[in-house]
Amino acid sequence: MRRSPICALALLSASALAGPEPLLCYTFDDMANPTANSGSLGAAYDGAVSAGIVFVPFGAGFAIEKSAPLDAWVVHGGDENAFDIADTDFTVLATVRTTFTDPAAPGGRFIVVKNETGSNDNWGLSLRPDTGEALFFVSADGQFVALFSCIPINDGAPHVVMGVRSGDRMGLYVDGVLGSAGDVPAGFPSTQDSNAFSVHIAGRSGAVGPSGGLNDEFVGIIDDVQIYDVALVTPGVASVADLAPSYGRFDFSDVIAFLQFFADEDPRADLAPPAGVFDFSDVIAFLTAFAAGCP
After folding, report:
1. If 47 and its partner were Cys, which of 35, 60, 128, 244 is the partner (CB 3.0–4.6 Å)?
2. What is the DSSP letter of 23?
């Protein structure tokens, strides 16, 4: 099977010799079949494009663009259940370029999402238009684990945004930099999709907000979308003060978490030498990291 240069590059970055192959990979570069899937699921998962999506020159090839919050997207073919992967290791990444901002709209503008309107089950990458950050989430039965990138992506420059789950550890990267990381809590429900909904790129079906606005629709350019059923990396620690959800937000919940860890002599509160001793130096280390905020 022919593999696109971008997908091949991603594999080389994962390993010097060989690496995992994506389930889905859209480079949008072949104008004869711009949504051809060069991932392992093959041509049955080639994408369909709705009105409002256009193809534009981008980098050395092409990308999709949506210049306004239209109810439009790219959706894959094949079996949507192939992407019920968020209960365990998986990776989703895309290159984006946008200047979209809306200080009054905290809702996510979806980059890549497996989630139906009205459903709380599954996963996605999105843009927070009020802060300009990327957001990576898994959700089930009304429970969410959400990571904010701390790094704006709406500055008009191209950015590679990647969300990873490795075991119970999640991380959100922008251009290879870990913006935030956190843990899926014990007992978190299964994310298996009960409504059999497909992965959407640049929006989601029926994404009409409570005020009638198209508040889930991405505005800008998206390129090189890849989805893996493995973790390409194991997320480390972005900040020793980012201890509680929502990750990438530094607030009182982090303070409470640190105090509990400190009282329990949990290693997550052992932030300063000597190791194994919990004292005021650990408190100072936490407060210093907390005041610094995003890494």
Report:
1. 35
2. S
| Strand-pair partners of 93 | 162, 226
Distance from C-alpha of 91 to C-alpha of 243, rounded to nearest angstrom: 22
Q: For the stretch 16-28, what's the b/e string if a residue is b when 16 or more beta carbons lie within 10 angstroms of its beta carbon? A: eeebbbbbbbbbb
Residue 53 phi, psi dihedral angles, 5° rounding:
-90, 130
Query: Considering the domain boundaries, does residue 259 fall inside one?
Result: yes
Tens-digit pLDDT profile for residues 11-20: 434 433 357 8
Q: What is the pLDDT of residues 118-134, one digit of tens each?
A: 556 689 999 988 889 99
DSSP annotation of 176 reads: T
Q: Which two tokens stand for residue 16?
A: 């010097």
Which pairs from 49-57 meet CB under 8 Å and 24+ separation?
49/74, 50/74, 50/75, 53/202, 55/28, 55/31, 56/221
Contact 254, 240 (CB under 8 A): no
In a domain, 245, yes or no: no
Range of the domain at 168: 5-228
Same domain, 130 and 56: yes
Assigned token pair, 282: 């650990």
Rounded to whole angstroms, the Cα distance separating 246 from 254 reads: 9
pLDDT score of 61? 94
Residue 44's H or E segment, with its range, is none
Q: In what order do the strands lie in the sheet with 122-128?
A: 47-49, 74-76, 200-201, 109-114, 122-128, 133-140, 143-152
